[in-house]
Fold:
Amino acid sequence: MAGTDFKQHPPKLSHPAPVIILIGAQLGENIGMTARAMLNCGLTELRLVNPKEGWPNAKALSASSGATEVIKNAQLYNSTAEAIADLNYLIGTTARPRDMSKPMLPVDTAIDTILEKKTAKCGLVFGCERVGLHNDDATLCDALLTIPLNPGFSSLNLAQAVLLVGYNWFSKACLLPPKLETISEKSPLAPKKELINFFERLENELDETGFLRAKEKRPTMVQNIRNIFLKADLTQQEVNTLHGIVKSLKS
Amino acid sequence: MAGTDFKQHPPKLSHPAPVIILIGAQLGENIGMTARAMLNCGLTELRLVNPKEGWPNAKALSASSGATEVIKNAQLYNSTAEAIADLNYLIGTTARPRDMSKPMLPVDTAIDTILEKKTAKCGLVFGCERVGLHNDDATLCDALLTIPLNPGFSSLNLAQAVLLVGYNWFSKACLLPPKLETISEKSPLAPKKELINFFERLENELDETGFLRAKEKRPTMVQNIRNIFLKADLTQQEVNTLHGIVKSLKS
Structure:
């Protein structure tokens, strides 16, 4: 639809906008169309983990149809862990159920969950076009969201998936008054880099003690252990406590 | 997103699906992407009024990414009047206000209006990519709808506009989707006695190693540690894993 008026200002939002993270996006066009869909919905912070065609990408700029600021300000990362390091709460987008201990939310509920975090810095993660989110990346998420669509034909283009998730967010963040204070505001969730530090430390210790020695089972065991702690919505203080516990048990 | 399962059946819908009418669509690709977005949302009836590149169109078929039935069954018309002849209620989609005596509804309200018509045959009209709906065509509509988006960047691709309108319709018209399965349904939460066993075992170990030696702080520390694990909604299997971790670290 025609009708953009660049002279108008973006709407005032009652909540901080989540970051969009694309992991291993295959086509520059899709990144460009994602940027356009993001800006349609008032989302401006794009992070790219290892885009297949490299970065910057002229096709992305062209396909963004004027969402230049999103493309120009996009940040590039070599790993998911780096891309999510400063985020407090992370939701992965998936079209298929995962056999992992993690809340699986319809998009509507997922957005409510993000809005409840109020001032926490949230991220929405999208896997690559062909296979979606890798299990290792899904494991790093606090929850997974799925978009309820025609079950006989639910495959969405990457940018369309971002559009529907963004639209859900925009509809609620623009119209709803800020929610009342929640616990997570008083004690913000730990940044992801702190969680990942803890995971790696625990896994190192468990490698040493032989708990993870069964090589073929190690990836699943690591996923299961990470999921236990991710479900707990840990604060920084709690991560510190867990470090203390591991250190003490090892002594 | 990957994940379409063509073997599944489309959802049962509580209302007849509206017809999508594209007037003067310029690009075959956009018609194809529109068909894909329609089928994502359980919409199958597409009508084309004077598509600029003619019809049938190979680019449309290719861009539909498998929504072949929508493309193959699309009906071609020489005028808007013919294309809407059998419809009972018509809503036009526009990004800009029109100086005409006609209800201007946000998409959410427009879909409610369609659903209220119950068995009436409804149509949703989209103008061409460059200029949107012609005033003559808008005049034929019972109401106009607009999609509330970032007013600083509200220009949508044709297929994205269809997707957002279709998604609004599908979310409301499809019978409540089956409750999304969560792991905690498959793997019930651990009985409280198992949790308490784990807490006591951990606390005993931490008493031994001296982590809880500060007597006046011990009650608060124990509460904090228990809360970490209580927040995680642990399954029995996860409690077993935690026992294994503690045992391994202590060894």
